[in-house]
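Data availability (excerpt). The following record was deposited with the supplementary files.
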Amino acid sequence: MSSRNVNKQEDYKRKQEQFFAGLSKYKDIDIQINPFSMNIEKRFEEFSREYDPQFFDLAKNMEERSIAMIEKELKQLTTENYYIGVRINGVGSARTLKGKVQEVCEGAIAKVLSSSGYQLAIDKEFLERYAVTEEVLFQHMGMVNASRVSGDEMAHFYNYHYIRGTKESMSVTSELSSNYSITDTILDPNEHAGIIEMRSKTGTKYVSFLPIAKFKPNLRFNHVVQLSQELPFPVEFHLKGHFEPLKGGGGIENKKERSNRKLKNVARESYEGGDQESKKGKLNRFMLRDLEEKIDNKIPILKWIACFAVFGDTPSECQKRSSAVINLIDSAKVEVVNGTADQMKLFHKYLPAEPLFNTKDWLHYTTVEGLSEMMIGLDNRVGDNIGFPIGCVSNLSNVNGKRVEEIAKACRKRVLYNPFLASEQVLGKVSDSPHIAITGPTGGGKSFLAKFLFVLSSYMKGRGLYVDPKSEYKKWIMRVINNKKYQKKYPLFISYLKEYHFVTLDPDKKENWGVLDPICFLTGADAKDTAESIFEQIYDFSDKEDARVEMLRNVKKVIAEREAGEKVGLMHVITRMKQANNEEVKKSGNALFEIVEGSTLQLAFSYGDTEGLNLTNKVTILEIAGLKLPKATDDPRNYSAVQKKNIALMLPLGKFCEQFGKRDYAEHTYVAFDEAWIFTVARGGSDVVADMRKVGRSQNNQLILITQSIRDVNTDDESGNFGRIFAFDKTDERELILEHMGLEVNEDNLDWLATMPARHCLYKDLYGRVNRILVYCPFEELIEMFKTVEETTTGRSEEMFAA
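Predicted structure:
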């Protein structure tokens, strides 16, 4: 969950409050959040099953380079495991007097044996007595989607605390898990102040425990656990809690009364001495009155201690990480300290199942509502569970002047991308749409991201089409192919690029005339609607109703003739208008002929004798030579005649992409359409986009729509939803972006969006999760291929002398 999604966070807190309240009858709880390996190698192993055999070696090479890059930047890619332990031995399961007596006797015997250094043998019958209690508890754990820990996981969980920081501690399947004994580790707290040195056969590591010492009187919005997950290194969290009895001899009510009498005496003495009661005294008495209400309402109250723990390869690294945690949590007005003299005490106190009994230091009393404000168990990840890394979650506040590589190194959570995941039935997904929308202004980074996703998709099984109206992508690809350095360093990649099929539609070449004629490659309503939209785009029929009716009539006739087997095309509509008896129709026909003749529109007008495009290659880059499109900021009323023609040409191009996606239902197809915003200014353009989006999951087709405005991502039609949305900041659309991504429109979020650095965008994944990510491609050959502008000497010099 994003830290920017306030409403969802409040809902989460209420559920957590309800969950913790339901544990109150079990008295003791033990919560631990430990780093765990994402096992990126295993994820890639599963993911590689979908690599295209033709480019398998190249995909494996990128996989290996990705893993090496992650290890270099982060040492190990980790996630978090959230453990909840609940003590149930105090909850009797016996239903008869004899059974209850037996339970009490066995409990007493176990304590006597334990104090003498012995253990009571646990048999199956003993465990079965608690089966019902455990089952009830497990059902309650369903509120947080918990699963039972296996025997191997439990063994690893206990061993973890003695091998933390090592590679073996991050995986249940390590060899160490089966033959390790906790007595193999030597703990030394004396060499470095505030740090425990842990020596074992796995090596030497250093760990520090950082207790939470003090909160503000009101725990609202501290979110300290969620906050700690944003650090660029693994951080543990541990909490031991005991639900206090509200009434009775040792209950909270008696403690409250004693404290109340003491505060009243202090206040009386102050008044008698002529002084006012202190602010602290007034606050404490107010809190006691509030506590009284909570006791009357039987709200569970918890006594607890908690700490963060960090580890490192060296004492210096451990110390730096400790300081980072303390400083970050301090920003939430919560005091975390380095228990310098108590490290061994803290180590043993936070071992699994160690009770809170007799603990006095760093003790807190709160309601379960206060506990929920810490946001325990949240994760701010986005992206897929397997796939190629395309970036990282980045909520860093100040990255000005930093290079992309530096930012990535400070971000621990990588964003993975599995191109065809949307077509699969996966638990937790909120969208089955394979389509991707990438929005943002010119120069914001959307084309870079689109090309990155397209290339990664091409490593998988299936066929791809990249529509490049700007006719620039081929130039950069050829530059990489012809680069001697890249030929030597990346032969697999160069061989892959040489398999690209480039189709440049040049209206000056007669063999290209009519290849986008909608009459020739479309049928029925699709052909009719597209043809009419082209005519409406290039000619103003507003005061020429006779000409418009004749155009519509001839379009219908030509389509019928084509379906009957005759060689006719869109040009025949103009020819017949020129031959009409009606003077207005004839003039319009002549005008249309002059508009089409010698222009880019010749690509869409034919006499029906041109072979259409036949794109059967693995990867095709389709561009149109000499296409001059307006800027997104230009007023449509001021478009030139050439711009209007070129916009009209996009309509059959879009319909062609739709046909490409429909061609083979059994094969994955993916179409990236750059400058897709043009459809929104073309008559009938929105219908073309809607039709392209309908060719989706059932036809195994994915549309990557690259457009200027978030307005172009319309989700009113369920069949047209985009499963993934990447939104780069756009000054005049910040409120719309936040609304569309499901984030609250408030000053904090608007400022957060306004200060979003370059190469950052908001990402909404297939699971409905939203966060800010850094688009990160660490491969130089791909970066060169994705360029859109030349890097100048002036620009390099400016960066060299930046402050």
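Summary of structural features: The chain has a mean pLDDT of 86.
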